Amino acid sequence: MPDFTPAVETLLRTIAEAGSTGAQFVVAPRARYRLTGTDYVVNQRSFYPLTSAGYVTDGGDDSAPVKLTASGRKWMEQHPVPRGGRGPYRPRGTRPARQAPATRPARLAHAGGFTAELVERTVVITCPDNGRGGATLPADGWEERAKDAHPTLHDIEGPFISAGYALRWREDPRTDAELLVQSLAIVRAEPARRT
């Protein structure tokens, strides 16, 4: 009785497990066959030692199920699956769906040191460091000018301790990226005060 490679042995045990109905394989890309209804794919060359030794047969019809012959059953009886050995193909079960990564707020860094972060149509702008322990803030009165120029800009809060502002947009048809760019343009247009 020949010794088979692990791939050939797994194939033989998989065909044996199918019983008298046989295992139905379909042609797969790159000279392979796939066991119908499973993810099990085997190279065509893995069938050669089994068919040439007469352990399996498809009756000469490539589209027919592959069945174990009497010689194949005899080999199976003489070679039980050792503990930890290769048995027939077993589906691994359904893999748990990959969880989508936690949605992170869109973040954009802009030249000049300003950064913007958008959360639920609120853009949080952080002003750049002025190099002396403070921040470069926009000129006085920019908030009212921005609200007058942008009717969907609902509210502006700040400056916060972190030298930042929160621009709240409401019913604005622009995308998040467009709001980030617009918010940065508004705040960066008038940097004047230094704290």
Structural account:
With 195 residues, the chain is α+β, with helices and mostly antiparallel strands. It contains 5 helices and 12 strands. The strands form 4 sheets. It has a 5-stranded antiparallel sheet with strand order 6-7-8-11-10, covered by helices on one side. Strand 6 and strand 7 form a beta hairpin. The longest helix has 13 residues, at 176-188. The protein is rod-shaped.
Nutshell version of this structure?
The protein is 24% helix and 24% strand.
Specify Rg, calculated over alpha carbons: 34 Å
Instruction: Tell me the β content.
Output: 15-25%
Low-pLDDT parts are none
For the sheet with most strands, the description reads:
5 strands, antiparallel
How far do the termini sit from each other? Answer: 88 Å
Total number of β-strand segments? Answer: 12
Spell the H/E element sequence.
Answer: HEEEHEEHEEEEHEEHE
Mean pLDDT: 78
**What helical percentage do the residues reach?**
10-25%
Number of helices: 5
- Please state the structural category: alpha+beta
Please give the order of strands in the largest beta sheet. 6-7-8-11-10
Q: Globular, elongated, flat, extended or rod-shaped: what is the shape?
A: rod-shaped
Question: What structural keywords apply?
Answer:
single chain; 195 residues; three-stranded antiparallel beta sheet; 24% helix; rod-shaped
Topology of this structure?
Elements: H1 6-17, E1 25-28, E2 32-35, E3 41-43, H2 48-52, E4 56-57, E5 67-68, H3 70-78, E6 106-109, E7 115-119, E8 122-126, E9 136-138, H4 142-149, E10 153-157, E11 164-169, H5 176-188, E12 191-194
Antiparallel strand pairs: 1-2, 2-3, 4-5, 6-7, 7-8, 8-11, 9-12, 10-11
